[in-house]
Predict the structure.
Amino acid sequence: MQRATRAPVAGESLLHPAAIAAVLTLVANDHYLKHAAPGVVTGKLSDVAGLVFFPLLLQAGWETSQVLIGRRWRPSLRVLSLCVVATGVVFAAVQVVPGAADAYRVALGWLRWPLEALLAVASGRELPAQFRVRHTPDLTDLLALPALAVPWWVGRRRAVLSSPA
């Protein structure tokens, strides 16, 4: 196997076709498909897309933080593993543990608020109140957990190609 000759770029895994496809799928599903064709497939599609994208986002965040504080870094299987496992554990907890589901609803509401506020200001509306997102825990959502193999594959390949020869 031939090694990559260029240095890796922090967060570049977010530009992998799988990550881009996951984001596009998530947006299309949540803003169009779920309303146009509600059902089991559209219900699980966002779960799969999120499980593909989120570990790569966490990994990109770690890599970028290393650059910002001036540390040398390279793609790490340890960091990738932590990102994949953390995503799976939190996803499962949100589906199974009522307190985790409520914390998710509040946290995601706060994360969405700046965008909602910006859109309100841009359209001349009043600032929205902080809100909780809708979430219905569903044990069958756990069937999406194998999607974590995709970010593992993307990140593992990147880590192996950038490791010292």
Notes: The helical segments are 17-36, 40-68, 77-96, 98-122, 149-162. DSSP finds five helices and no strands in the chain. Residues 12-96+147-162 form one domain.
